[in-house]
Input
Amino acid sequence: RLAFAFGLVLVLLMVVAGFALRSMSEIQGNLEIMVTKTQTKLARANQMSSAIRDITIMDSNLILLRDEREIKEQVEQLEKVSANFREARAALDSLVVTPEGKSMLAKIDEALAVGTPLNQELIKLALAQRTEEAREFSLKKFQPAVRTTLAAVLTFILHEQDLSKEVHAHSEQRYRQTRMLVNVLAGLAVL
Output
């Protein structure tokens, strides 16, 4: 009887250990998704959002500037920020795998297809020192396109944040279940 009881305790401990390891592996996988994938996508989307805002500010500055050196510096900065935006957008192509995420990226691209030529036209007007025309163009055409693009990026960001919350909630639930089961089975093994 003693050997049977001892064997039962060993079996219970092996079940506890196996279940705990399986659950911890699942939780680790969820953490990897949150840290390496979701957070990276969020960082890239926020990088895009910041770049759009920076481009808008720099375009406004271009309209106001008169000094050739300052204009040249502003154009160089615009090129850097635009490259930063393109880098972030390209990175998302390899990170986003779900149809819903790809659809959201397509909406961002659609907004960019409208906004990018408008931005180029605005820069041309500003460089030609056609200040009043550039100001009107910015207010009536470019700014609405910027808002549309930012809204598309924000929709993507909110989607990724929701996914992260879901993974986090699932991991927390799994942790609580594992902790409870390990405690129960360990208590049974001790009895």
